[in-house]
Amino acid sequence: MVAFAMVAMVSSAQIYVGGGLGFTSDKVKVSYDGDSESESGSSFYFKPEVGYVLNETLSFGLTFDFTSDKEIGDDDAVSQWSIAPYARYTFYRTGNLSCFVDGVLGFGVPEEDFTNFSIGVRPGVALSLTENISLVSTIGLVGWNSLSTKEDDLKLSYSTLNLGVDGSAISFGLYYTF
Fold first, then answer.
1. What is the pTM of this model?
2. Residue 97 in contact with residue 126, Cβ under 8 Å?
């Protein structure tokens, strides 16, 4: 009976793919007494995502994240990658709009010899544009983040507890459901 229930549950599941892509460019120009100087920076991210819809309220997914940042005034860009599996619970649905919360567990490598670990919840909304295409937005991450490194005798650890939802951490993505 358990095997029959599992087959029935999996046979109604759907797979979705999507993610986000972004680029930002910054430039500072200072003019004083006829002389001017300018410096620029940029940021790029690529976040592909794949997920599995079990039913109307529960999904599981995996987000890959590659980011490259060049701060204003820096010569070199800093690149990082991360992977974050999540469980998504959809708690409200009306028409084409649904509200959800993701339980996220993330691991990343922001720089050589550093590791990043995070755990938390990420609220979001999804708007179904067609039967197969959805626009999805998430708003920050409420949870805990740890950044650490260990080189020879040096051990450094930095932890952050985030209990607010920051409007500057809104992301948008496009999903295609098979």
1. 0.76
2. yes
